[in-house]
Amino acid sequence: MPDDPEEGMLSWDESVFRDEHVFEIDYVPESFKHRESQMQSLKYALRPAVRGSRPLNTIVSGPPGTGKTTAVQKLFGELSAETDVRNVRVNCQVDSTRYAVFSRIFEAIFDYEPPSSGISFKKLFGQITDRLVEDDEVLVVALDDVNYLFYENEASDTLYSLLRAHEAHSGARIGVIIISSDLSLDVIEELDTRVQSVFRPEEVYFPVYDERDIVDILRERAKRGFHEGVVGTPELDRVAELTAEKGDLRVGIDLLRRAGLNAEMRASRTVNVGDVEEAYEKSKYIHLSRSLRGLSESETALVRVIAEHDGEQAGEVYDAFHEDTGLGYTRYSEITNKLDQLGIIEAAYTDVGGRGRSRALSLAYDPEAVLDRL
Ligand SMILES: Nc1ncnc2c1ncn2[C@@H]1O[C@H](COP(=O)(O)OP(=O)(O)O)[C@@H](O)[C@H]1O
Ligand SMILES: [Mg+2]
């Protein structure tokens, strides 16, 4: 019925989505293309573990949204299914101290959390290695978003313990994969020399995907997530173009989902370019949202203060921060550095009329957008 007014309109019990879950952040895609050489290098480094030896340590780096976490999840999935190698991925944005990292490892090995009170690090560590030796197992630990351990000054201690496990506990075999999304951080350079001397990792780099790769990957995702014909080629191309501008595949996946929701809002069976453009106003902040989500209370407080004092000198910002939180200058400058490294704020040195140089602090995003997401 070509002139049916309901044609192309969605009824209440219909959806453009076949499976909305495929657009969620923790979804591990079935197919993982355009990362063949990186997967090869990682497998090469892990192969000794399968033979019962200590694997090669590896550093994985690359900008956000380039498939680093997914690569490790895929490999660990294979290791668990096909070998006896133990593996655990620690999200350092959540577990950002040595103790927290080892608690997570403990939990993965024993299947229950360590007692939350009173157990020393040494004991925790000892129980982990005893178990590995007893079970004759090799362990691979992935420290995902390891940059967060650096921001908290916990990276050297954590790595030192992991890398020297076989010396402190004879027979323990542990390999480490560290994953960093912060390209301005020179991981090796920032470690203590005692760690540098035992850490000679293989390096695997994940560059941003080009627009053709992005179209290819997102087409696959759209096919799984939407009913047939919901997203056409011009719409997909626009999504890919916007994603390539940001370089983060997460933007594209979020765009697809939001564009689908926008189409549903119009009760349309198909996504149009307008749905994509509108979605972009939110999706372009996905990286910001992710960075803000991991912040502590005092870190959030400073973001709020800077939003209200956007562009002012560091001294003035400190006064306001101190008034709000009661925290001192040392903590203030630590947090400032962390926010700067996370790309949430920008600190620019300026000459202040003959009185030397001072830092002006401003948000790297529109203050409204930041405050909305706090
Ligand atoms: N080659 C790929 N094929 C399919 N999906 C991918 C691919 N690379 C990344 N993704 C998807 O993009 C998003 C970001 O990937 P992720 O591995 O979390 O990036 P990173 O850890 O580098 O920030 C995830 O939703 C992931 O499923
Ligand atoms: Mg990641």
Structure description:
By secondary structure, the chain is of the alpha/beta class. It has helices at residues 36-50, 68-82, 98-110, 121-135, 147-151, 155-163, 165-168, 187-190, 193-196, 211-225, 233-246, 249-265, 273-283, 286-293, 297-308, 314-325, 329-341, 367-373, and strands at 58-61, 86-91, 138-144, 173-180, 202-205, 345-351, 357-363. The protein has 18 helices and 7 strands. A hairpin with a 5-residue loop joins strand 6 and strand 7. The longest helix has 17 residues, at 249-265. The termini are far apart. Bound molecules: adenosine-5'-diphosphate and magnesium ion. Magnesium ion binds at residues 68-69, 144-145. Pfam families: AAA_22 (PF13401), Cdc6_lid (PF22703).
Short synopsis of the structure:
The chain is an alpha/beta fold and 374 residues long. Helices cover 52% and strands 11% of the residues.
Secondary structure topology:
Blueprint: H1 36-50, E1 58-61, H2 68-82, E2 86-91, H3 98-110, H4 121-135, E3 138-144, H5 147-151, H6 155-163, H7 165-168, E4 173-180, H8 187-190, H9 193-196, E5 202-205, H10 211-225, H11 233-246, H12 249-265, H13 273-283, H14 286-293, H15 297-308, H16 314-325, H17 329-341, E6 345-351, E7 357-363, H18 367-373
Parallel strand pairs: 1-4, 1-5, 2-3, 3-4
Antiparallel strand pairs: 6-7
Helix pairs in contact: 1-2, 3-4, 10-11, 10-12, 11-12, 12-13, 15-16, 15-17, 15-18
This protein binds adenosine-5'-diphosphate and magnesium ion (MG).
The site of adenosine-5'-diphosphate (ADP) has 19 residues, from α2 and α12.
